[in-house]
Amino acid sequence: MKTLPVGELKAQFSEVLEKVKSGESFGILYGKKKKPIAMIVPYKDSVDKKERKIGLLEGKVNIQFTDDFKMTEEELLGLS
After folding, report:
1. What tens digit of pLDDT does each residue of 17-71 get?
2. Do β-strands 2-5 and 26-30 pair in parallel, antiparallel, or remain unpaired?
3. Calpha distance 19→40 (Å, rounded)
4. Where are the alpha helices (DSSP H) in the chain?
């Protein structure tokens, strides 16, 4: 992975995107101390992804919900 300060990234943005398209990754450095703050990585289409396991305990534990269990998506995500 190559790293670039923000100023260089802005000046070479099109070239960096072309390299990202061909598989390279870039770290973005920010500030006087040039601290790494972000990365630009190639986008992986979901077709390339392997089926993801639910978790490390899949097949080792049994989870059961009672018939009256109800939870909204907002509650699940902690938004309510």
Report:
1. 999 999 999 999 999 999 999 999 998 865 555 666 667 777 787 777 788 888 8
2. parallel
3. 10
4. 6-11, 13-21, 73-76
Q: Which helix (H) or strand (E) holds 39?
A: strand 35-40
Domains and CATH numbers, the chain: 2-42+56-76 (3.40.1620)
The per-residue pLDDT for 54 is: 63
Q: Who's near 13: CB < 8 A, 6+ residues apart?
A: none
Spatial distance between the Cα atoms of 36 and 54, rounded to a whole number of angstroms: 31
Contact 29, 6 (CB under 8 A): yes
3-state secondary structure of 4: strand
